[in-house]
Fold:
Amino acid sequence: QVQLQESGGGSVQSGGSLRLSCAASGATYRRRCMGWFRQAPGKEREGVATIDSAGSTNYVSSVQGRFTISQDNAKTTLYLLMNSLKPGDTAMYYCAAAEFNSCSSRPAYDYNYWGQGTQVTVSS
Structure:
């Protein structure tokens, strides 16, 4: 079984930065594809960034150039560095994992394992 636990959320002003972390445990093959998703009130869950076991990354266009996804060498912690935050980035952020080798364009329902989420609030 895979367990995921997010941390690092909080409240910041527009233009500020936050770094989210996701502690991951469980069989490595079950989390070859890791991603960050977010969900704002009244909106669907949206994929923000993904990284696969080879280190290939993908970003939704609205965060390209501002957010960076990474993981440690042991693949026990997933990170999301968020710079130049905007009020539109306000949401609950979730860490997710799946067994696929390729993460590219996979929707939320393809991910088998989810954390509880961490809230990010950006004020103008």
Observations:
- The radius of gyration is 13 Å.
